[in-house]
Design goal:
Layout: E1 9-10, H1 12-20, H2 22-31, H3 42-51, H4 56-76, H5 84-104, H6 117-120, H7 127-145, H8 148-155, E2 166-172, E3 175-181, E4 183-187, E5 190-197, H9 207-221, E6 228-234, E7 239-244, H10 250-266
Parallel strand pairs: 1-3, 5-6
Antiparallel strand pairs: 2-3, 4-5, 6-7
Helix pairs in contact: 1-2, 4-5, 4-7, 5-7
Amino acid sequence: MAELKNDFSWSKSRDATFRECPRRYFFQYYGSWGGWYNDAEPRTRKLYVLKQLKSRAMWAGEKVHDCIRKSLQNLRRGIEPMSGDEAIEATLAVMREDFANSRRGDYWKDPKTCGLFEHEYKQKVSDAKWKEIADHVANCLRTFYASDLYSRMRDLPIAQWLDVEDFASFDLDGTKVHVVLDFSFRDGERVAIYDWKTGKAGTEHNEVQLACYSLYATQTWHVAPAQVSTSEFNLRSGKLNEYHLGGIDLDSIRTYIRGSIRDMKFLLEDPDANAAREERFVFAENQGVCRFCNFRAACPRFGPVRNGESSEGF
């Protein structure tokens, strides 16, 4: 099998990480690369394991998305999905197993096993707070399976379906730009795109993310931006908000993405080879973000790196 190549690409999440902390960006996309191999260097392996950690809120959102994706994939294949109650119970069973594995630290032996940020950094979280997470997941799923939107999806001809949480991309000046659409379908001449949200309601939808959806839809399905709509279904509040993309200035968004790509590549040792050296990536100016960073246990900012690992760049 050919060795995987770490090609440069861009996404909104990659951009957000870079803006928040360039050193974290290095750990996430370069320092951890190859850490899945059994013979990986110790620090590379460590960074790879830490990269997989999830906060309990991220974990909850992931489990909600996983459950919904499986139901929609079954519908697409002509398989009757579980009922809402069955899906909730199956998801909570997986979460109980994840929790036990994480608390034992099994993710250090097998990075594919769930690892929770709170366990790795020994944060004190009460049983009541963990139960809140389980209840939150159950409530989000209950909202989805009882919704008019899910009923509409069940009735929608499969021929109209487009992406269902597929890892997709479009090209911008030779750079691959990644997007993930939770659900999309054709509605006559239009394309409708849906996002599931499990966080607090009331946050504004990100214009760059919307524009990326529009650029992807334009290139992939050959529709005009005015024919694309994105709806955010907040499963915590049960509120559905629809956004039309025709009014977004796509040229300014392309300029933003090009500027972000330029900044990322400027710090590379060899942009053509996508090769990076750690010390070129500075630490976050706002040290408050370090509190929630997966890589604290390996970051030179917090002192010499343990286990004989290099503290180069500190």
